[in-house]
Design brief:
About 40% of the residues lie in helices and about 20% in strands. The chain has 16 helices and 19 strands. The chain has helices spanning about 5-10, 50-65, 75-90, 95-105, 110-125, 165-180, 195-205, 220-230, 245-255, 280-290, 305-320, 340-355, 390, 410-415, 430-440, 475-480; strands at about 15-20, 20-25, 30-35, 40-45, 145-155, 155-160, 185-190, 215, 235-240, 260-265, 270, 300-305, 360-365, 380, 400-405, 425, 445-450, 465-470, 480-490.
């Protein structure tokens, strides 16, 4: 497969960034290269925002909010704009998917029919909420004649910081509810994968969103991210990324008590009981860890298996891993792409090496793949002790740790013995058992006989050190709103 003409034309020159409706291309700004992780070659470039550019973007967002350029529109007007963005995403779907594949390494089909479709659906879903945001009336117990009610109001200017592993869909997940709530925003995409978000900004402008409401400022975290977090004009920050960075954001926001939504790391447990349908469980579990080369926050990376099915389950997963087609996302036969960078690949390989030193046994993979690109073999580790680093820490790569559990009650204890609590799944044909397990695992989202299935109507977020708040569903909208109470003496 080769990129279409729209992609080639788009990548021919360094891409500007968006501030107050203008696309900025200044000699004062650094030009950052975008690297295809499947070839290690430069595919394009973009202008990185400097501190003064970020401050201009924040000021533009603040001015647009104060002037009610967006929040002053009727709910039906807002909804029409969000629907238009969704239609434009569909119309430009191939171009966006190629950008995701070239910039982040995703297989094209996964980007085109997964990421792009979900991005469009995000705007359609929240378009439906524009006309449904409202407060309530309530009686109060104070003697006298009073009328009391609440109002839902947009929180103000919000800063959105997105990760490199899902740049387009993560941008949509944050921009759509922020706009539905009536906020103005500044978004910082990852410096590793900025191209699809900048292209989304082009579509947002075409959809008629007023100048200054949506501003896109790519660049590094120390420059762009820190400026957003430290600005008193930014009332809330939504961040998706590592737990380590999330903790730094909490410290940085302490001075101005900025509201935070944090979707952080995970070490999701997968529990497989002796009555599981292995014909469905094996491909489902494998997809849950090897999809996007394991660079997924909800990846099912630690598997607890009942002894009765352990051997058959392990054998099936090894066979699946050994036959997985690894390569460039532009190859239609590719099932798993590369890791995002050499640095990240080295980190994953160190985890595998440390896990082996701590007693784990390699059943499949375990090595980098020679040649161009940041590829690693799909890896399965057995004989993993609960204290092993590969069972405790987020690897963010295609590495599955399998643990045989004699007593599945103990599996629940071990599954919950983690600093994380983002996701998990259970595989069993006993529906009563399945729901009981779901109620006992500490996780923000839990799947039964599947893993990693997303939907905009379902809130997503974590327990413990996997984050604060939720994205998706009406709960995701609430984090962009303030509640005001009004009491009137009649």
């Amino acid at each position: 497969m080769k990129p279409n003409k729209a992609v080639i034309d788009y990548l021919a020159t360094p891409r500007p960034f968006l501030v107050n409706g203008e696309w900025i291309t200044s000699d004062e700004n650094l030009i950052e290269n975008s690297i295809d992780p499947a070839t290690e070659k430069v595919i394009g470039s973009f202008y990185a925002a400097a501190i003064q550019d970020v401050n201009k973007a924040i000021t533009a967002a603040h001015s647009s909010f104060q002037q009610k350029n967006w929040r002053g529109k009727t709910p039906s007007e807002m909804a029409k704009h969000l629907w238009t963005i969704a239609d434009l995403i569909d119309e430009h779907g191939d171009t966006l998917a190629y950008l995701e594949t070239l910039d982040g390494g995703k297989p094209f089909a996964a980007a085109r029919y997964g990421e792009v479709s979900m991005a469009a659906e995000s705007f359609r879903y929240y378009a439906g909420w524009c006309s449904k945001i409202g407060g309530r009336t309530t009686d109060i117990s104070i003697p006298g004649d009073f009328h009391s009610y609440t109002k839902k109001e947009p929180i103000g200017v919000v800063g959105l910081i997105t990760p490199w592993n899902g740049p387009l869909v993560m941008a949509a997940w944050k921009i759509a509810p922020a706009l539905a709530a009536g906020c103005s925003l500044v978004i910082k995409p990852s410096e590793l994968t900025s191209l699809s978000t900048l292209y989304l900004g082009k579509l947002i402008s075409e959809a008629g969103i007023p100048d200054g409401v949506v501003n896109i400022v790519p660049g590094d975290g120390e420059t762009v991210g820190a400026t957003i977090v430290n600005s008193p004009m930014v009332k809330k920050v939504s961040f998706t990324g590592s737990t380590e960075t999330g903790k730094k954001l909490i410290q940085a926001s302490a001075g101005n008590l900025k509201k935070l939504t944090l979707e952080l790391g995970g070490k999701s447990p997968v529990l497989v009981f002796d009555d599981a349908d292995l014909g469905k469980a094996i491909p489902g579990i494998a997809d849950g860890i090897f999809s996007n080369a394991g660079q997924v926050c909800v990846a099912g990376s630690r598997l607890y298996a009942a002894p009765e099915i352990y051997d058959d389950l392990l054998s099936g997963l090894i066979d699946y891993a050994n036959n997985l087609r690894v390569g460039s996302g532009l190859d239609p036969k590719t099932q798993m792409g590369p890791l995002i960078s050499a640095q990240h690949r080295n980190k994953v390989l160190r985890y595998i090496s440390d896990g082996i030193d701590q007693g784990a046994k390699v059943e499949a993979g375990g090595n980098k793949i020679d040649g161009d690109g940041f590829f690693i073999e799909p890896t399965i580790l057995s004989d993993v002790a609960p204290s092993n680093c590969v069972a405790q820490e987020e690897i963010f790569g295609p590495v599955l740790s399998i643990i045989k559990i004699e007593n599945m009650d103990e599996a629940i204890v071990q599954a919950n013995a983690s600093n994380y609590g983002l996701a998990g799944s259970v595989w069993t044909q006993d529906i009563s058992k399945a729901h009981k397990i779901a109620s006992e695992i500490n996780a923000g989202i839990f799947w039964i006989n599947c893993h990693g299935i997303p939907d905009m109507a379902v809130p997503f977020g974590g327990y413990n050190q996997s984050g604060w708040g939720r994205e998706g569903g009406p709960e995701g909208l609430d984090y962009y709103l303030e509640t005001k109470s009004v009491i009137a003496a009649l």
